Amino acid sequence: MTGARHPDTGLADGLERLWTPHRMTYISGQDRPAEGYEKPAGCPFCLAPDRAGADSLVVTRGEVAYAVLNLYPYNPGHLLICPYRHVADYTELTAPETAELAALTQRAMAVVRSVSGAHGFNIGMNQGGVAGAGIAAHLHQHVVPRWGGDANFMPVIGQTKVLPQLLADTRDLLAGAWHTG
Q: Dihedral of CA 35/25/27/169: which sign?
């Protein structure tokens, strides 16, 4: 939609608008369980592996950890690497969990590069709410693909991220490529 009118002057403001109503669920917190994320019963990272197929957005499952698409991605292919165990802090991981998180992160990078030609990645975890963790009770590592020019004016000026691919399509693409090559 182009050109909303200024209420006083009646002139078009010249701004383009992209509607992203799916983001309202995240902003409003309407999907947040009443009991919060502190207990596994309300934790989306505890619930995701038990959901069926593509509905779970899980791309692959390991022995002690798994890779899942971020429901509110920064970029297409934004994955979260999570231990199955409901644990908040990196220092609480077992040696096998730490090793599998690392291995899944490496594989995630290779798969995303192979299917989308990512130029680079942001990889990291926010430990605690004050550090930016949206769900601090269950550790998760972000693997965010990056391309030259992907930080254009939209997120900077418009606080809007344009994603060219549906989550289900991204999940199918990554899951299909995960165990090949």
A: positive
Q: What is the pLDDT of residues 4-26, one digit of tens each?
A: 565 666 666 555 555 555 555 54
Q: Is residue 121 part of a domain?
A: yes
Contact 59, 69 (CB under 8 A): yes
Which pTM was predicted? 0.73
46 contacts 135 by C-beta, under 8 angstroms: no
Question: pLDDT by residue (tens digit) across 63-104?
Answer: 999 999 998 888 889 999 999 999 999 999 999 999 999 999
Catalytic residue list: 140
CATH number at residue 148: 3.30.428.10
Total domains in the chain come to 1
DSSP conformational letter for 155: H
Q: Buried (b) or exposed (e) across 104-120, using 16+ Cβ within 10 A?
A: bbebbbebbeebbebee
Dihedral sign for Cα atoms in the order 127, 130, 131, 134: positive
Residue with tokens 């549906």: 166
- Residues 86, 11: Cα–Cα separation, whole Å: 54
